[in-house]
Amino acid sequence: MATKRIRLIEIAHARSGDKGDAGNVGVIARDDRFYPVLLEQLTVDAVKQHFEGICHGAVERYELPNLGALNFILHNTLGGGGTVSLKNDAQGKTLSSAMLRMEIDIDESLL
Amino acid sequence: MKDRIRIASGQGFWGDLIDAPYHQVTRGPVDYVMMDFLAEVTMSIMQKQKLRNPELGYARDLPGQIGRMLPHIVEKNIKVITNGGGVNPLACRDAIFREAEKAGIKGLKVGVVVGDDILEELDAMIAGGIELANMENGAPLSTIRTNIVSANVYFGAFPIVEALKQGADIVITGRTTDTGLTLAPMIYEFGWENDDWNRLSAGTVAGHILECGGQSSGGNFLGDWRAVPDLAHIGFPIVEARPDGSFTVTKHENTGGLVSEATVKEQLLYEIGDPTEYITPDCVADFTSIHLEQEGENRVRVHGIEGRPATEFYKVSASYHDGYSASGTLTYAWPDALDKAKAADAILRERMQDLGLHFDEILSEFVGLNSCFGPLATIPDDINEVVLRIGVRGKDKDHIARFGQEIAPLILTGPPSVTGFAGGRPKPSDVIAYWPALLPKTAVTPKVIVEEN
Description:
The structure holds 2 protein chains of 2 kinds.
Chain A: E1 3-7, E2 12-19, E3 22-29, H1 35-41, H2 44-50, E4 59-64, E5 69-74, H3 95-100, E6 103-107
Antiparallel strand pairs in A: 1-6, 2-3, 3-5, 4-5
Chain B: E1 5-11, H1 20-26, E2 32-35, H2 42-52, H3 61-76, E3 79-82, H4 89-102, E4 109-114, H5 122-127, E5 148-153, H6 158-165, E6 170-173, H7 180-190, H8 197-210, E7 238-241, E8 247-250, H9 261-268, E9 278-279, E10 284-286, E11 291-296, E12 299-303, E13 306-308, E14 313-333, H10 337-354, E15 361-367, E16 385-394, H11 397-405, H12 410-413, E17 418-419, E18 429-440, E19 447-452
Parallel strand pairs in B: 1-2, 2-3, 3-6, 4-6
Antiparallel strand pairs in B: 1-7, 4-19, 5-14, 7-8, 8-12, 9-10, 10-13, 11-12, 14-16, 14-17, 14-18, 15-16
């Protein structure tokens, strides 16, 4: 079985927003066959490592198999939250795109 | 009982497309239009406006939007439900009555939901042992009491249902949940019970899909954004609701945008926490029970939704003054654009240190390079230009003001190839922070007032 290194954006799309000082990032498989890949590759540790220097708190992961999706909560990420933060992206609107830059391994036959 | 009602999204926030609700009532059939205006920060802005003028404190776009829609909603018997009343829903009602006068419309019934504004009752509540502890860090509200700007309870759908039962054509609320605006007409039309948790959850999910306007019909869609047709004429989403709790998400024909499983999924995941417990005053919806099916072009069927009993608490959203901030920008051009911007940043910081300025935070970002992706950003070797964006936040207003005076001098006393300093010195602006808390439902009672012009 040959594996290939790809960016997450090839098999998933996403939307993000703010919940206080935390960011929420929903990641959705572009096809049902990719959902198991998300489950396996997007572990809490892998996502925490990907967002190193951006997410300064814990990462929580929730599964929505009915939508082929995962929801991540990135704590302590938005510089104090929407109204306090000095960041250009104070509401975490582009965390979704940042997530999709992540590199993952995938079985080539799935692509 | 009707076997289907159409609820249209007319507004996703205060500042959204002004003509969207008008297009919803003129471009095809609808029974209700819901207009969501309130974000966390909106109530504090409205409270400030009300302090300056007791006749204000609501979404000022709203009366004009409704005035334009009035002939159509009267003719077609369309009802409008909105939380645009902000911190002054009665003044908003009066402004709508003035619009009705202008349009020569008599007998318009407007319902108002009040009682969510607890600013005047805070001291009595605190004295009575209600802590209103911050849901994020547990601190009691008394620690920031003197800085509080606004405090509102999130009411749910049922006060709106009461207004509809009393014959209201338009319902204006203050801080009602975004989802309650959509759930209320379903409860009213289909006679759902207040403990029918699965159906209440279904209506809540429909509300979550509608509450951000075009964000579920192709706007801000990351899936395949180039494939979304005609965003210039985007049709806002419409829910066709049925008595059993299932519904279809769609939009008017001959409008732009896209309603697909993918666009609906993105909105379902927007700003949620634990998907098995999406908590509102009306129920606890389980987003892992939602099933979607594309049933036609721009039509997504949603069904199977389950939920659990509502909690004993209302959520309270208070806002408080927490110091000042300012930010400014300078643009640096090739050659060595990034090095120049970094040097300017270092010079500015050194000067502020020499001046003894103190801040809680200084943040420098390089817009065009890393303000979105931080350390994930890849930096090209030879960039054409970059914007240095530097912001400060702190308790001392004079220090923030002095920061604003130190940026422009960099043009003549810093690295070369610099431009883009327009609009004058950045001024200190108030930082309004947000305080989420829980309040026992027994501590406050919504009140419904329905009047006719």
